[in-house]
Design brief:
five-stranded mixed sheet; alpha/beta; Transcription Regulator spoIIAA; 4 helices
């Protein structure tokens, strides 16, 4: 089970907690990436790496669980869209689930909510 962790410390952050961690689980062609922390210009490369790994054939579906993500910025959106494009090129399904309020709002405002989630109401 690959794990991607980005360190560093932000104001008010617990020193024991990384900025971003991503756990990857694969079972029968189904990849689940579970992210926790913040996805921004400093941590988006870890998300990009996890998504590249997830879109290595054979893969049937990719689920990105952002339930533990408190914040994401435009670099996170770019990584999510590139991951979606790679997945679709392979014929795999791709969905973002369990959005917290701030990431949900970012996807909603940018018009990406329906594109990246199953029903636009996650």
């Amino acid at each position: 089970m690959p794990r991607y962790v980005v360190g560093g410390l932000r104001y008010g952050q617990d020193p024991e907690e990384p900025q971003l961690s991503i756990e990857s689980t694969t079972v029968d062609g189904r990849v689940v990436l579970e992210a926790r922390g913040e996805i921004d210009v400093a941590t988006a490369p870890a998300l990009e790496a996890a998504l590249k790994s997830a879109t290595t054939p054979p893969v049937e579906s990719i689920i990105i669980d952002l339930g533990g993500v408190r914040f994401l910025d435009s670099t996170a959106l770019q990584a999510l869209i590139r991951g979606r494009n790679r997945a679709l090129a392979l014929g795999a399904s791709y969905v973002v689930v369990n959005l917290q309020p701030i990431p949900h709002r970012v996807l909603e405002v940018t018009g990406l909510l329906k594109l990246l989630t199953s029903d636009g109401d996650s």
